C-alpha cells in the first residue's frame, strides 16, 4: 500500500511566476512521484486556513517552504505551530523544508532567527556529520538548491544534526524516527531557482545574485533527499523501506 503523505502548503507562488511553474505542493508531488517508494498525496494550503479533517490519517505531514518568517506573529503561523506540536504529541511523523524546517525547530523547542550572514541562494554544499540507515543512497556530502534569509540557530532537544556548513551550521536534523527537516529545497528545479533569483535580484544584491546564478551550472541532489525522506517515513512498514 502506498505511503499517504499530507502536504501542508505554506505559500503561493509570486504572481509573475504562477503561469510558468507548479504550486509548491505540486512540486513535492512531482518530486516524490519519481522515488522508488510509492506514495499518494493530499495538499492543504494552511496559509488559506485549510487543514485535513481529524478523520483523515497520514503516514507523514510535510510542511513546505514559504516567504514568511517562521518566527513571525501572523495568526496562520501560530495556528500551524500549535497544530504541529499537537501532531508531534500524537506521535505522527513530520517533515519540514526551509520554512517548515525552521517552524518545526521552533515548535519543538529550538530557535530560529534572521541569518547574520544574509541571504542563502543558489546551490549550496553541506557536510554530513551523522548518517542513518534510511540515508540511502549514501552520499559523502550534499548539494541542494536554497533560498532563505532565516536559519535555525539552536536545535530542539534530542535532535541529531544531519547536514551542516559554515554558512548554515544547522541545515538538516532529525528527532528519532519522527521528525526530519532540511533547510534546502529538494523540490526546486534550476529554472524555478533562476526565475526566483531574477525576481529578487535587487533585494538580495548584485554580488549575491551573480554568485548564486553562477552556482546553477552545477547539479543538486534533491532527488536523493526526496528518497531519504520517503525511506524515513517508510521505516517500520514491511517491504516499503526496502523498495528499490
TrEMBL record:
Give the superkingdom in one word: Bacteria
What Gene3D superfamilies is this protein classified in? 3.40.50.880
Pfam families linked: GATase
**What PROSITE patterns does its record include?**
GATASE_TYPE_1
* InterPro entries recorded: ChyE-like, Class_I_gatase-like, GATASE
Glutamine amidotransferase domain: from which residue to which, for each copy?
Answer: 77-193
| PANTHER family in UniProt | GLUTAMINE AMIDOTRANSFERASE YLR126C-RELATED
**What is the name listed in the Swiss-Prot or TrEMBL entry for this protein?**
Amidotransferase
Amino acid at each position: 500500500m502506498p505511503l499517504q503523505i499530507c502536504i501542508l502548503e505554506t505559500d503561493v507562488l509570486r504572481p509573475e511566476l504562477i503561469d510558468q511553474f507548479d504550486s509548491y505542493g505540486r512540486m513535492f508531488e512531482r518530486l516524490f512521484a519519481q522515488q522508488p517508494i510509492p506514495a499518494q498525496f493530499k495538499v492543504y494550503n494552511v496559509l488559506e486556513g485549510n487543514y485535513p479533517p481529524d478523520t483523515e490519517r497520514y503516514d507523514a505531514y510535510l510542511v513546505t517552504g514559504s516567504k514568511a518568517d517562521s518566527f513571525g506573529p501572523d495568526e496562520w503561523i501560530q495556528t500551524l505551530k500549535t497544530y504541529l506540536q499537537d501532531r508531534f504529541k500524537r506521535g505522527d511523523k513530520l517533515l519540514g523544508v526551509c520554512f517548515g524546517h525552521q517552524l518545526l525547530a521552533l515548535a519543538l523547542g529550538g530557535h530560529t532567527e534572521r541569518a547574520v550572514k544574509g541571504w542563502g541562494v543558489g546551490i549550496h554544499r553541506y557536510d554530513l556529520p551523522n548518517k542513518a540507515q534510511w540515508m540511502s543512497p549514501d552520499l559523502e556530502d550534499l548539494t541542494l538548491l536554497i533560498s532563505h534569509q532565516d536559519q535555525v540557530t539552536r536545535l530542539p532537544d534530542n535532535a541529531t544534526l544531519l547536514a551542516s556548513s559554515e554558512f548554515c551550521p544547522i541545515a538538516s536534523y532529525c528527532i528519532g524516527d519522527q521528525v526530519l527537516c532540511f533547510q534546502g529545497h529538494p523540490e526546486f528545479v534550476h529554472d524555478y531557482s533562476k526565475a526566483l533569483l531574477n525576481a529578487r535580484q535587487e533585494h538580495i544584491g548584485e554580488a549575491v545574485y551573480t554568485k548564486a546564478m553562477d552556482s546553477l551550472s552545477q547539479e543538486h541532489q534533491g532527488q536523493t533527499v526526496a528518497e531519504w525522506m520517503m525511506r524515513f517515513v517508510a521505516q517500520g512498514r514491511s517491504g516499503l523501506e526496502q523498495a528499490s
